[in-house]
Design brief:
seven-stranded antiparallel beta sheet, 9 helices, alpha+beta
């Protein structure tokens, strides 16, 4: 392990090293964690997995229980029991009315090319009311596919929030196509949420008055 990886692991261990129900310590993907902490400037105790290179990566870094969703095509939709947190902390974000979505115990993860994800969500969570909501790929599925992620977490948000996140997501896809953004394929096993992903999960609009929304979102990352 490199000195930089040692430093990142120590930073993570100091603030957040959850124990799973199976008694194992869930450590984050080193490469994914480096991006989240260094490039996204996310707090070490707010690492939220939203994309995975494959099912093995989900097993290793998110949760041991990854079950294929009955009634869907083989391997296209998985119910994952999240064991990696993040745990609640003194960050202001945990006071948000929708904060529970950040560390939901049972999550739906789908392949980027799978189109029946709304039906899959209804199958996975039949008691959850989603009328009028959009089932949102937290990481843009075109971006995820371009960067080698085979699974993306989905969650319900309002149609307006889903639409407002489209500009930044499509921008990332185009920059990847142009070679401006280096592909993450083969380096990161897990993609963690950045500030815009966090905003979409909390059903906050990313577009329209962007700087004000970013300011409000940044405040959520401050300790109380």
């Amino acid at each position: 392990m490199s000195h930089q990886e040692d430093s990142l692991e120590a930073e993570y261990q100091e603030s957040h090293a959850p124990k799973s129900p199976h008694g194992r310590t869930i450590m984050p993907d080193p490469a994914g964690m480096e991006r989240a902490l260094r490039k996204y400037a996310m707090p070490a105790n707010l690492l939220i997995p939203i994309a995975a290179a494959n099912r093995e990566a989900l097993y290793t870094y998110v949760g041991k229980d990854t079950t294929e969703l009955a009634g869907t095509s083989r391997g296209n939709a998985l119910i994952v029991r999240c064991e990696c947190g993040p745990d609640r902390s003194n960050l202001s974000v945990w006071r948000h009315v929708k904060a529970s979505v950040l560390n939901t115990e049972y999550q739906l993860w789908v392949r980027p090319g799978y189109n029946s994800y709304r039906r899959a969500y209804r199958l996975a969570f039949p008691d959850e009311y989603i009328d009028g909501l959009v089932i949102h790929h937290i990481m843009n599925r075109r971006y995820a596919a371009a960067h080698g992620f085979e699974y993306v977490r989905v969650t319900p948000i309002s149609r307006s929030s889903n639409s407002s996140s489209g500009f930044s997501e499509n921008w990332g896809v185009e920059l990847t196509k142009q070679g401006v953004l280096r592909s993450r394929k083969g380096t990161e096993q897990i993609g963690y949420a950045d500030l815009s992903h966090l905003m979409s999960m909390l059903d906050m609009r990313v577009g329209g008055g962007v700087m004000e929304q970013v300011r409000l979102a940044a405040e959520l990352l401050q300790p109380e």
